[in-house]
Amino acid sequence: MNGFADQGLSEDSFGPSSGGLKAFDAFPKTKKTYLQHTTQGANWTLLLIVTCVWLSITETMRWWVGETSHTFSVEKGIGHEMQINLDVVVAMRCDDLHVNIQDASGDRILAGSALTKDHTRWMTWVEKSKNIHKLERSSQDQKRYDEEDVHDYVGAKVKRKFPKTPRFRGNADACRIYGSLDANRVQGDFHITARGHGYMAFGEHLDHTQFNFSHQINELSFGPYYPSLTNPLDDTRAVTPTENDHFYKFQYYLSVVPTVYTDNSHTIVTNQYAVTEQSHSVPEVSVPGVFVKFDIEPIMLTISEYNGGFLALLIRLVNVVSGVMVAGGWCFRVGEALLEFYGKRKNRGDGLGVLHGRTPSYDEKRSI
């Protein structure tokens, strides 16, 4: 009656739905033909993830190792004595050697009676020692201050005993002099000379043909004896140019610097030194031998290592990851804007969007 039947319409179409409301979405949807699927975003996200992982691992390793700082300061403490640790092998018999120490105050110490002398053979040490080197090479091999690992020092243990002298066969032709002794903490020197030819030496003179001051220094340090710590003169050997150079003088000049190694839980107080060497033959009126002159510097070097707590590590990791993500997002947006601007200029007047009824993607524009 209302004409719906004449028009082919039914009132049932305007009635309530057969079921309840299942879903309702008031937000407009973008058609799939308008979506732009590219690989740039996925590749950029993968690159950011790899960068975050790499920087996080690097930051964790830096935190685990810690940061090392070197500080020089004027030494305020006054020490009256200083321990000297010596282990040297000289290619002469023990009965033919004298060892003495003399400091700037005029005090003399008969080190020969304070140190231990063992008879040995020179070739035993030459064949036994594999890591021995010359001082000229050691000056290049020694670690610099900024390359030092504090754990190598704070983990060292004090020892009072030196290793035993190796056994040998045959007659002894060398002497091992080793031990620790206390000396005044002032400038001084100690020297190894031949019997009857040293300073203030009395007695029968030794035949000049018996002179051979070729030597090997196994240990020379100042302060507590730490065998695991390497000093510039440790494991060094110096020999005369020829067997006929009986009057030969080896001189070492040491500059001793008090040093403190510290980390979060340990502290070690010891001494470092720099050394220069000068060796040459001398006339018969001079005194041959091994001479070590040392000078105490009025400064102190503090080498400390510090790594923050676990909370500090977490804060640094959060800062690294967030910084990479924010910077990466900005770079991606700027890059997309530049590519879009460049693409519009290149394809200006292009009717591809009109023909296909949609806006072409950047990949499609590049394929034209």
UniProtKB/TrEMBL annotation:
Belongs to the ERGIC family. Plays a role in transport between endoplasmic reticulum and Golgi. Keywords: Endoplasmic reticulum, ER-Golgi transport, Golgi apparatus, Membrane, Transmembrane, Transmembrane helix, Transport. PANTHER family: ENDOPLASMIC RETICULUM-GOLGI INTERMEDIATE COMPARTMENT PROTEIN, ER-DERIVED VESICLES PROTEIN ERV41. GO terms for biological process: endoplasmic reticulum to Golgi vesicle-mediated transport; retrograde vesicle-mediated transport, Golgi to endoplasmic reticulum. One of its GO terms (cellular component) is endoplasmic reticulum-Golgi intermediate compartment membrane. It is a multi-pass membrane protein. Residues 172-328 form the Endoplasmic reticulum vesicle transporter C-terminal domain. Residues 21-109 form the Endoplasmic reticulum vesicle transporter N-terminal domain. It is found in: Endoplasmic reticulum membrane; Endoplasmic reticulum-Golgi intermediate compartment membrane; Golgi apparatus membrane; Membrane. It comes from the Eukaryota. It comes from Lasiodiplodia theobromae. This is Endoplasmic reticulum-Golgi intermediate compartment protein.
